[in-house]
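Allow me, if you will, to draw on your knowledge of protein folds for a short while. I am sending you one protein, given as its amino acid sequence and as whole-number tokens for its backbone shapes. Kindly check, if you would, that the fold set down in the tokens agrees with what the sequence suggests. The record follows directly beneath this note:
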Amino acid sequence: MALEPGKSSTAWFRNIYSVKYTMDIPAKNMCFGLSEERDRQSFFTFLQQIGREEFAVEMSRRVSTDDISTFVDDFTKLMQKYFSENEYHRLFLNDKTRGTQKEIKPHH
């Protein structure tokens, strides 16, 4: 399902996963370990923060090549665990020619 014009990514997320709470929390309010719901809200915000261009530029300038390898390996393992190959291409690589049907791997 594509993001509908005029709808925020959060609205799309709530629609797809029937989330009854808002995922939008300010970055300064992220915290982990209190509850599964708060962990998911914080993780959502955390991923949004990683995607900010200013952050990506600075982090990529500072991180060692060893840390780059570790991060990419660990994140790739998570994607392989939770996404099908089509989901990986559609969601991560933004390849709209792959994975047009909804195939959600259950979380463990």
The chain has two domains: 8-62, 64-108. The CA atoms of residues 94 and 108 lie 25 Å apart.
